[in-house]
């Protein structure tokens, strides 16, 4: 995979040159029309039309070329079907020398008509995963050098709007594509993640945005060193009328009661709340988005249990600044914690799990894996997964190989 990424990067200047060549080649039809006008009615100041002998010579060459083309076409028609395939380089699966491997998008879209799940295979979804993974570090100037954290946030915020009391919201719908949900304060800055995913969707138009966004969250966690996340396809995209009301996601300046109010409506318990909070190992806050500022950890693009270690072992003071209330670490004054983060160490029920995860990354990974997979399926009707469940024995969810695993297996 590393050599593949290198070759892809090396190919980018070639693609740019080809695009430039195509750009300059675009006006050619106009040039042809100008030549025709030149022969019929010369513009003022243009050369005189060719003499009859030159025109006759041109017609002779033209007729000869047409005759040769007709003869070649007739010869091609005389070949058998397999001979034609061999000439054109068309393979058994419809691939050819010009366009490469056969595009499965149309095939999968046709199979999806009238049903959920369709005939997309695990390999098809692995290809989507790989495309996301390959693009995570495409812009070294974005945040800390990876789009991974913002993709986790997109999957989280698209799923965390679920309310079990009304059975509304959740990952089924991808309604953040529309206003007003796209403009909710909690979703500030997620336009970067949605634009990232739009580029991926153009490559794989058969996948729903709902499945794509959650799969992006899986890829980001795994590629940044986190646990394997089981994932099932089957989400359907919704409409603007299904946008959820503002206020269903947690506010960073609140305490433990607020956390329970938000997460209990999703169906989570105290242990799951703490496990999911461990995603703050990734990324940072932005003053121009949430108002808060700074990363939670020293390695914001590595998924570890460092978040819990810092909560337990570092000393935290209120930051004195012109912004919303947040804490800063005493040692370096370069890290931050929100009020909701500190609430995890102040509430006895939450604190026991913080301490447990600080001692054991394995326990954190195991519990996060389960809670995150549950989060990504919130609001999805179980019948949406029925078509999928026939694909593998017992309906076992997909677990995707990371790019590192794929590279090592070669």
What would you say this structure looks like, in words?
This protein is mainly alpha-helical. The chain is 50% helix and 3% strand. The longest helix has 27 residues, at 52-78. It is globular.
The gross shape turns out to be globular
Detail the poorly predicted runs.
1-72, 74-102, 113-117
Give the strand line-up of the largest sheet: 3-4-5
CATH fold assignment of one domain: Peroxidase, domain 1
Structural class: mainly alpha
Any guess at the CATH architecture of one domain? Orthogonal Bundle
Q: What distance lies between the first and last C-alpha atoms, to the nearest angstrom?
A: 9 Å
Strand content: under 5%
- Based on DSSP secondary structure assignment, what is the total number of beta strands? 5
Helix content: 40-55%
The helix-strand sequence is HHHHHHHHHHHEEHEEEHHHHH
GO molecular function, one term: metal ion binding
Pfam families: peroxidase (PF00141)
Keywords: Heme, Iron, Membrane, Metal-binding, Mitochondrion, Oxidoreductase, Peroxidase, Transit peptide, Transmembrane, Transmembrane helix
Family: Belongs to the peroxidase family. Cytochrome c peroxidase subfamily.
């Amino acid at each position: 995979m590393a050599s593949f990424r290198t070759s892809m990067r090396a190919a980018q200047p070639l693609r740019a040159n080809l695009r430039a060549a195509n750009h300059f080649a675009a006006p050619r039809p106009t040039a042809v029309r100008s030549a025709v006008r030149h022969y019929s009615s010369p513009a003022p100041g243009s050369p005189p039309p060719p003499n009859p002998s030159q025109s006759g010579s041109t017609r002779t060459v033209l007729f000869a070329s047409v005759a040769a083309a007709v003869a070649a076409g007739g010869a091609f028609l005389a070949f058998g079907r397999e001979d034609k395939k061999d000439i054109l380089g068309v393979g058994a699966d419809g691939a050819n020398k010009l366009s490469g491997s056969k595009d499965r998008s149309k095939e999968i879209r046709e199979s999806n008509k009238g049903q959920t799940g369709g005939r997309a295979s695990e390999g098809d979804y692995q290809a989507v995963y790989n495309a996301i993974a390959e693009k995570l570090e495409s812009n070294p100037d974005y945040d800390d050098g990876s789009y991974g954290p913002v993709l986790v946030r997109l999957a989280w915020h698209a799923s965390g709007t679920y309310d079990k009391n009304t059975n509304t919201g959740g990952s089924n719908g991808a309604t953040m594509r529309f206003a007003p949900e796209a403009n909710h304060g909690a979703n500030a800055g997620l336009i970067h993640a949605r634009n990232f995913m739009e580029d991926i969707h153009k490559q794989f138009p058969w996948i729903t945005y709902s499945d794509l966004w959650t799969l992006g969250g899986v890829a980001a966690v795994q590629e940044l060193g986190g646990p394997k996340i089981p994932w099932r396809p089957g989400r359907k995209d919704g409409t603007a009328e299904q946008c959820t009301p503002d206020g269903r996601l947690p506010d960073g300046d609140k305490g433990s009661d607020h956390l329970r109010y938000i997460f209990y409506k999703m169906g989570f318990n105290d242990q799951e709340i703490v496990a999911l909070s461990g995603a703050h190992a990734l990324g940072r806050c932005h003053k121009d988005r949430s108002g808060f500022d700074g990363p939670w950890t020293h390695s914001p693009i590595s998924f570890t249990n460092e978040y819990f270690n810092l909560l337990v072992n570092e000393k935290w003071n209120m930051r004195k600044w012109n912004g919303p209330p947040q804490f800063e670490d005493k040692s370096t004054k370069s890290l931050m914690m929100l009020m909701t983060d500190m609430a995890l160490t102040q509430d006895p029920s939450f604190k026991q799990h913080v301490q447990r995860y600080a001692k054991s990354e394995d326990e954190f990974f195991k519990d996060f894996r389960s809670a995150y997979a549950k989060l990504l399926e919130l609001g999805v009707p179980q019948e949406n997964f029925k078509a999928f469940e026939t694909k593998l024995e017992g309906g076992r969810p997909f677990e995707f190989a990371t790019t590192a695993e794929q590279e090592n297996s070669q």
